[in-house]
Design goal:
single chain, 468 residues, mainly beta, Rossmann fold, Immunoglobulin-like, 4 domains, six-stranded mixed sheet, four-stranded antiparallel sheet, elongated
């Protein structure tokens, strides 16, 4: 587990993503190098008229500016962190009210920290507070050319929405679309009665006193950059975490985006391996057993090791023929008992794991074999053998039309297949049993020339039938 306690004077020494690098650099050089995600932080800064007011001993704008510059100083040397600055309320004085008063002043880019500091130093608060519009426009500030990024908005404000926008709805859309993680909101001396107004936007922290602002900023940056640890216990039928070697996918419960794909591993100590994960999301876990198992509403707490349990008791199924290796490339169908939906297509002779339970099997041989209520038991290999087929060779004087039927009794027959109307000779693999073939040559234009012949297929044997 890797957590970080932030001190503004020591922030450069390493936080959050540095821990991830140290964690994964301990791996063997033979294992593919882990690439930690880049964290992109968009500071959305309130420069409205009210920020010129005093907050206890100093102006709000001066307090917020000084602390944010210190944060910028501390973050600029972290290779996996990039920053941008959007302001609102800084272009148009009130009155009149300009509810479109927001602009990306410093976009994301390399070595842009000095530009952000310079912009902050010369802010003159003058306008209104269009928080919703600033968030909406902020969605466009993150470049789309990053496949391994965490996008974070930190909103710093001393007041609530002053226009007709809905900051909660805008934040919802940002998260639902997967553009950003749940935003952070830092309130500057905001009345506690407005807490619910900001809770719906994101993680809300209110600095009720001037001396608390530095502390709140430290907490937010720590929360934004830290990862935390978890493990997934794949439980057998006895509730023990013995199942493993299964693909697991973690989704963002809110947006549905795929966040992580792992193959579950039991480490050298015999325990489920530790995962380093982003704690800012609520996850849905899908364990790709057959059938899959889902675990919803997984929440992680920074600094706390979270154990995630999933009931995945499994056994093994294998299907083969007696005394032979026919059908080696054959795929058979596995369904959950009572269901018509195909669960899996499995190759003959290949072992496959399934959740403990009962399954129906359809084997597409001639004639088809249906096996119902096949039981899969915990840690047990269920082996099913089907008879070795025989070979039927049809010899025709001419091409023609016909079919093969399985003779279950003198009164009952079942259609097996049609024969090839374009060839004079063909061979088929048939399961042991009694059959009838019906045939009429293509050039025989009278029904009376239909030929009917019966024959028997024995396991491993061969039969030739002349159709003339």
């Amino acid at each position: 587990m890797c957590s970080v306690s932030i001190n503004l004077n020591k922030l450069k020494s390493g936080i959050g993503m540095i821990c991830l690098l140290l964690f994964f650099n301990s791996y063997s050089q033979n294992i593919p190098k882990y690439e930690p995600p880049d964290t992109r932080i968009l500071f959305v800064f309130d420069a409205s008229q009210s920020m010129a007011g005093y907050w206890e001993k100093n102006r709000k704008i001066d307090i917020a500016r000084k602390t944010l510059i210190s944060i910028i100083d501390s973050l600029e040397d972290l290779t996996n962190v990039s920053m941008a600055l959007r302001l609102y309320g800084h272009q148009s004085p009130v009155p009149p009210q300009n509810c479109n008063d927001t602009r990306l002043e410093v976009p994301f880019g390399k070595n842009n920290s000095s530009r952000i500091r310079q912009e902050l130093r010369f802010i003159v608060p003058k306008g209104t507070t269009p928080i919703a519009y600033a968030l909406k426009m902020g969605a466009k500030d993150f470049p789309a050319d990053c496949d391994n990024c965490r996008n974070i908005i930190i909103l710093i404000t001393d007041g609530i929405e002053a226009c007709e926008g809905d900051p909660c709805a805008e934040s919802y859309e940002l998260q639902k679309s997967g553009i950003v993680l749940k935003p952070f909101v830092i309130g500057i001396g905001i009345d506690e009665g407005f807490k619910e107004t900001f809770d719906c936007i994101g993680h809300y922290y209110n600095a009720a006193r001037e001396e608390k602002f530095d502390e709140v900023m430290e907490v937010v940056i720590s929360q934004a950059l830290n990862a935390t640890s978890a493990q997934v216990n794949l439980l057998d039928i006895h509730g023990n975490p013995t199942e493993t070697n299964v693909n697991m996918t973690f989704f963002d419960s809110f947006s549905g985006r795929i966040i992580y794909n792992f193959i579950h591993t039991i480490n050298h100590k015999g325990n489920p391996d530790t995962l380093i994960m982003d704690h800012l999301l609520t996850y849905k876990l899908r364990v790709h057993t057959i059938p899959p198992v889902d675990v919803d509403n997984i929440k992680l707490t920074v600094g706390k090791h979270t154990i995630i349990g999933a009931s995945t008791p499994q056994g093994t199924l294998v299907l083969k023929t007696k005394d032979g290796h026919q059908y080696r490339d054959l795929l058979y169908i596995v369904r959950k008992t009572g269901s018509k939906n195909t669960l899996n297509m499995q190759y003959m002779y290949k072992e496959e794991k399934y959740l403990v339970g009962e399954y129906d099997i359809e084997v597409p041989v001639l004639p088809r074999i249906f096996l119902n209520n096949v039981e899969i038991k915990q840690s047990h290999i269920t082996t099913i053998e089907i008879p070795r087929p025989g070979i039927l060779t049809l010899i025709k004087a001419a091409t023609g039309y016909g079919s093969i039927y399985h003779r279950i009794s003198n009164k009952q027959e079942e259609w097996v297949c049609n024969i090839d109307s374009k060839v004079k000779h063909e061979s088929l693999l048939l399961q042991p049993g009694k059959y009838r073939v019906t045939f009429r040559a293509q050039n025989a234009k009278l029904t009376i020339y239909t030929v009917n012949k019966t024959f028997e297929i024995k396991s491993g044997g061969s039969v030739a039938v002349q159709l003339y």
